[in-house]
Amino acid sequence: MAKGIKTIGILTSGGDAPGMNAAIRSVVRKAISNGVKVKGIKKGYQGLLNEEISDMDARSVSDTIQRGGTILGTARCNEFKTEAGQQKGADICRKHGIDGLVVIGGDGSYRGAQAMSRHGINTIGIPGTIDLDISCTDYTIGFDTAVNTAMQAIDKVRDTSSSHERCSIIEVMGRNAGFIALWCGVANGAEDILLPEKYDYNEQNIINNIIRNRKKGKTHHLIINAEGIGHSTSMAKRIEAATGIETRATILGYMQRGGSPTCKDRYYASIMGAYAADILCAGSSNRVVAYRHGEFVDYDIEEALAMQKSISEYEYEISRMLAI
Ligand code: ADP
Ligand code: F6P
């Protein structure tokens, strides 16, 4: 099966995401079943440059599918953005006999993967980020767990918010992308959903909405605010001053990135991991695995990075209509 590939290296890079372990497990076991050796690289590209590399076998990934985080660790590494760092990384791979590499991460990690391919190491990317903000794919590993974790937390805040007839601003992750905020906003029945892609920074609209809803008999007012907009605490103070309604801010933060992955995250990660190992063993390089229109596919990294993904106008309109 393996077209010249003898040893695959695997690393996780950028922000961790629940389900990364299922992807690692699947890459390791599929590669081994294809007759290829696997080496685990700790702490992303930084660990590669530090030569934190060790052999993995089928047992190295036992009892990991249900665990959050990444057993390989992850890091951000500025040195890898330089030509010298990338050359060093490729040389270290060759020194350790690694002729194929799987990188699990987001767009930034894909640029590193692209560099490795350029330097002669066959490299495949797998989409791992809770933000869902990788354009070439409808699904990214970790999103489903993150939105379910956030949704459950928001339900709890909603209970106390209703009891006290308060307004609540709940900040969810997503620096540049509002997918977590949109999904939770709809799933939690929020009255206002603030997305980095859409928010017009007109707080008066929110204030008017709160007052209108109170007159209509709503006992709480839930605002889901994306991290990219931020400032939830000061926003709460301003809204309370303007409306006279007690307003509290809750920032969910890193709890959204942890925890045992959902079935969906484990399943998609498992299929994507095996897919990556297979195309790598078949001789592909400079490609990323994706899930698009109901199918597992792969794209050239250049092409994948040039794609655009935006919040659907229709879904956004529905989210606003449902809050009446
Ligand atoms: P993500 O992969 O989740 O988008 P980052 O953008 O933080 O996360 O990228 C993760 C790592 O990928 C960076 O710390 C760096 O080591 C590597 N990386 C990012 N951009 C580049 C680039 N242009 N060239 C090479 N490596 C990069
Ligand atoms: O990419 C996932 C993510 O959790 C974003 O939503 C968030 O903006 C970012 O990572 C935070 O990263 P860091 O670990 O550097 O604080």
TrEMBL record:
Annotated Mg(2+) binding sites: 107
Positions that bind ADP: 25-29, 158, 189-191, 216, 218-220
Domain Phosphofructokinase: 8-279
GO terms, biological process: canonical glycolysis; fructose 1,6-bisphosphate metabolic process; fructose 6-phosphate metabolic process
Keywords, sorted A to Z: Allosteric enzyme, ATP-binding, Cytoplasm, Glycolysis, Kinase, Magnesium, Metal-binding, Nucleotide-binding, Transferase
InterPro entries documented for this protein: ATP_PFK, ATP_PFK_prok-type, PFKA_ATP_prok, Phosphofructokinase_dom, PKF_sf
Chain sites annotated for binding substrate: 129-131, 166, 173-175, 227, 248, 254-257
Any one GO MF annotation of this record: 6-phosphofructokinase activity
Localisation: Cytoplasm
Main location: cytoplasm
Reaction(s) the record says it catalyses: beta-D-fructose 6-phosphate + ATP = beta-D-fructose 1,6-bisphosphate + ADP + H(+)
Pfam family, one: PFK
Necessary cofactors: Mg(2+)
Residues holding ATP: 15, 76-77, 106-109
Pathway terms, separated by semicolons: Carbohydrate degradation; glycolysis; D-glyceraldehyde 3-phosphate and glycerone phosphate from D-glucose: step 3/4
Activity regulation info: Allosterically activated by ADP and other diphosphonucleosides, and allosterically inhibited by phosphoenolpyruvate.
Record flagged with keyword Transmembrane: no
EC code: 2.7.1.11
UniProt-annotated catalytic positions: 131
Function, in words: Catalyzes the phosphorylation of D-fructose 6-phosphate to fructose 1,6-bisphosphate by ATP, the first committing step of glycolysis.
Homology family: Belongs to the phosphofructokinase type A (PFKA) family. ATP-dependent PFK group I subfamily. Prokaryotic clade 'B1' sub-subfamily.
Subunit structure: Homotetramer.
HAMAP family (alphabetical): Phosphofructokinase_I_B1
Protein name: ATP-dependent 6-phosphofructokinase
Taxonomic source organism: Candidatus Eisenbergiella merdigallinarum
